[in-house]
Amino acid sequence: MEKRVMTDSKRRRGLAAASALLGGVLVLTACNGGDDADAGGADGTQKSQAQVDAAAEKQTSKARITISPKNGATDAGINNDAKVTVSDGTLTQVTMTGPDGKTVKGELAADGKSWKPGEQLDRATVYKIAAGAKDSEGREAHENSSFTTVSEANSFIGNFTPENGSTVGVGMPVSINFNKAITNRKAVQAGITVSSSSGQEVVGHWFNGQRLDFRPEKYWTENSTVTMKLNLDGVEGADGVRGVQQKTVTFKIGRNQVSTVDVNTKTMTVTHNGETVKSIPISAGSPDNPTYNGQMVISEKFKETRMNGATVGFTDDDGKGEYDIKDVPHAMRLSTSGTFIHGNYWGPDSIFGSSNTSHGCVGLNDVKGAGDSGQPAAWFFDNSIVGDVVVVKNSKDKTVQPDNGLNGWNMKWADWKAGSAV
Is 31 marked active-site? Predict the structure, then answer.
């Protein structure tokens, strides 16, 4: 009985050994595949790992593609951040698409080594880039990436005047109003350059955290060209808030026209380069509502516009405007607070040159509808451009504040330069 048990035990051990051997063969086959040519050499011997790696390396492209920004990046710039480059090869194709699937136009370098978008990207937008390249032996490489551009909440822009390509008067400053408060003024101002073909020194002045103006010490030289370069893309203007603008703006300076309003004599003298070209009788602010003194720059022109006293604080006991004229002719703005030089058809002809009757504006004789080109107001309107200077003197009022309109000329040059952050 004991002998039989020993025989069964030996048989079980033999079956287990055979099973283990068979299992090992199956595992080996599963890991290495069934292709004898790949698993072994020509003589049927097994390849070493080094041989396998060498074979794989021969099939791998040496081209190395780099996509910027990195995959998954957020707050990417919309001008300069996106770029594809390749080393040890040339790019064969780059496709950049927005969330709508629309392809972004791009520019491939002549040597095939780099690619960049040919247009400004949108803010707060996810973009995808798929790139392909080949090395010197024609082996292909591919890379894919996606990133999100900076959001409006985390970026700032500057709205500026004058417009690109415009022609303006000698008093026109470059005025930039940022849509977010700037705390890093030095970095932002350093990213903006303003220069003149006349060679005049141009200095920036911060009126507050959102407004930066540039001007020379004296009025711009007539017939010169002014160039502003905004290199603000990626510049941090405040904590976590970066600029997105990169552009060049140029504008022309026209003839040198300065008009001087003498409140005492009730006359305006228009000069070109200091030479009088016309004298016009006016009616300035009344003794109760005098006109600001100072150098004021025409910032807007309207052939006709509405003027409501309620919008500038002139109201009656019922809270209504002391005046509401819906068709003021030939109106040109001199201050943000509501000072205009404009045509006046409602006053008698006798007031011009003899009596100051307005609520602070400078009035010139005109007709209703602004249709008579022979009227003094029409002549002045037709012969004025945005940026021309109107100087008011001998008024009983104070001098207009430099930041009330485009009127920084009322600040001494030393004080202006003291407001620069660079």
Answer: no
Q: In a 3-state reduction of DSSP, which class is residue 57? A: helix
Q: Where are the domains of the chain?
A: 64-150, 154-254, 257-407
**What is the model's pLDDT at position 314?**
60
Options 205, 330, 342, 359, the catalytic residue: 342
| Predicted TM-score of the model (pTM) | 0.78
3-state helix, strand and coil shares in percent for the chain, rounded to the nearest 5: 20, 40, 45
The residue from 205, 330, 359, 361 that is catalytic is 361
255: left (phi > 0), else alpha (psi -120 to 50), else beta? beta
Is 2.60.40.3780 the CATH number for 64-150? yes
Exposed/middle/buried for residue 31 (C-beta within 10 Å: 0-12, 13-18, 19+): exposed
**In CATH terms, is domain 257-407 a member of 1.10.357.20?**
no
Tokens of 368: 């209703």
* Residue segments in the chain with a per-residue pLDDT below the cut of 70: 1-47, 49-58, 309-323
DSSP state of 153: G
User: Is 330 known to be catalytic?
Assistant: no
Rounded to 5 degrees, what are φ and ψ at 250? Answer: -125, 145
